[in-house]
Every structure is written in structure tokens, then in C-alpha cells.
Automatic annotation (TrEMBL):
The lineage of its organism: Bacteria, Bacillati, Actinomycetota, Actinomycetes, Kitasatosporales. It holds the Pfam family SURF1. It comes from Streptomyces galilaeus. Coiled coil: none annotated. Residues 249-268 are annotated as: Disordered. Residues 249-258 have a biased composition (Basic and acidic residues). This is SURF1-like protein.
Length: 268
């Protein structure tokens, strides 16, 4: 009765089932790795955001690359804003997905070095974004700013092309090395996203607090894949039993038909 398992159709079905089981198990393991990675990143972000602010000079210096563990750390700096050499970062969106600019202002520290401060988002004055927009002024004189430390933006990490020939005082990326060349002064590695003092009238619009990645979704996907892998042999058995039942019923029907023909009286 089970010889049908050696047929071409059933050999293919069985091979596909045998391939699906380890593939789905592997996909579940991959999703668990993604879950662990996202959970670890969420913990790093949480730890950085809840840590007490420290002077920015303790975490970065000219030429320094901001590490994953330093990202989002709350830092403070004392100095003054240099609005004369302020630039805007093109094609950035706010929380409502409106396209505008980020305001990037050099912040002159008391020791003569420069810190890049992302003061927030402003809307574009015109769709073409070819002119320098009206930027609200920051506090004048010496001030203490607080912000989240961020690594330099690069094309490789962000996917944003660093276009050349842009309108005056406009850039595509926030990059300390690029700004150091433009300013001709030592610039601390990375930049900060300003969180305090808050701007007057809410503009520029401060960059929002980073959110957690949805690690639970990867956990659910892993369980789903493993349930699928367990369902494959169950489904195979169900198909085999159904095929066996159908063949037995067909065989029984044929036998009944043959018996009926045999029992019919001969016609004289």
C-alpha cells in the first residue's frame, strides 16, 4: 500500500519537505540572532540616554571616531555659537516627513576647538532649496549646551551621496573631517544633536529622541519559523495518510465492482 512513496511525485514531495525543515530551523536561528542584536542595541541606547551628562571633551577629540558605546551619550559643552559659519544640511525630514534642513552650527569651545552642533530641523523656504533659508539665531554669548553625541555621517553608513557643487552654505552630510577642512580649525570628532537649551518658539525643531528597535518582532518571527518547521513533517504524514486512505477506498471500490460483475446471473 505504501509503494506509492517511491513514485516520482512522492519522492519530490519528500525531498522538498526534508529541505524545508533545516531551512526553516536556520531562519528561526537567524531571527533569534537579530533579536539578540536589536536587544543589545536597545540596551546601549537606553544606557546612553540615562547616563549622567559629561563634558564632551572627555568622549571625543579632533579625528576621533565616535564608537557604538558612545553614541547617544549625553554631553555638555561650554562656548559660543559661530553663526557666521553656520551651514544647513539638505533634504532632511522631521517627524511629519516634511522635507527641510538641519541647522549645523559650529560651537567654539573655550579651549579654541570646535564642536559641531545640530540645532534641529527647519522647513525649506522654497521647493528648490537653492537659497540659504532663514535660520533662527541661537543664544548669544557664552552658553552651555547639552546634546546627544553622534558619529560622523558617511555615505557608506547613511546611503546619502555627498554631492558636490551645492548652493553656498549647504552640505549633504554632517561630517567633522569635512567641516574641519572647511573651517580650517580643529573640530571634535562626531557632532551633538542639541537637547538644551530649547530654542525660542520651538524652532529649530529639536531632533527627536531615538526610539527602540522592535526586537520582539524578530522573536515572534523565530517562533513562527520553528512552528513551520515542526508543521512540515506533520503535514507530510497527513498527506501520506490521506493518500493511503484514498488508495484503499479506490481499491475497495474496484473489488466491489468486480464482485458485483461476478455475481451477476448468466444470460441464457
Amino acid at each position: 500500500m505504501y509503494r506509492f512513496l517511491l513514485s516520482r511525485q512522492w519522492v519530490i514531495i519528500t525531498l522538498v519537505a526534508l529541505l524545508l525543515i533545516p531551512t526553516m530551523i536556520r531562519l528561526g536561528i537567524w531571527q533569534m540572532h537579530r533579536y539578540d542584536e536589536r536587544t543589545a542595541r536597545n540596551q546601549l541606547v537606553s544606557d546612553a540616554l540615562t547616563a549622567d551628562p559629561v563634558p564632551v571633551e572627555k568622549l571625543t577629540s579632533p579625528g576621533h571616531t565616535v564608537s557604538t558605546g558612545q553614541r547617544y551619550r549625553s554631553v555638555t559643552a561650554v562656548g559660543r555659537f559661530d553663526t557666521e559659519r553656520e551651514v544647513v544640511v539638505r533634504r532632511r525630514v522631521n517627524g511629519d516627513e516634511e522635507v527641510g534642513f538641519l541647522v549645523l552650527t559650529p560651537f567654539l569651545l573655550t579651549d579654541g576647538r570646535v564642536l559641531l552642533v545640530n540645532r534641529g530641523w527647519i522647513p525649506a523656504d522654497a521647493p528648490t532649496q537653492t537659497t540659504f533659508p532663514k535660520v533662527p539665531a541661537p543664544p548669544a554669548g557664552q552658553v552651555t549646551v547639552t546634546g546627544r553625541l553622534m558619529p560622523d555621517e558617511t555615505t557608506a553608513a547613511s546611503g546619502i551621496k555627498n554631492l558636490q557643487g551645492l548652493p553656498d552654505r549647504q552640505v549633504m552630510l554632517i561630517n567633522s573631517e569635512q567641516e574641519a577642512r572647511r573651517l580650517g580649525e580643529p573640530v571634535l570628532g562626531g557632532y551633538i544633536a542639541q537637547t538644551a537649551p530649547e530654542p525660542k518658539n520651538g524652532t529649530p525643531e529639536l531632533v527627536g529622541r531615538p526610539g527602540n528597535e522592535d526586537a520582539a518582532l524578530n522573536y515572534a518571527y523565530a517562533i513562527q519559523w520553528w512552528l513551520f518547521s515542526a508543521g512540515v513533517p506533520i503535514g507530510w504524514v497527513v498527506l501520506v495518510r490521506r493518500e493511503t486512505r484514498d488508495r484503499r477506498e479506490a481499491a475497495a471500490s474496484e473489488k466491489t465492482a468486480e464482485t458485483a460483475e461476478t455475481d451477476q446471473p448468466a444470460v441464457v
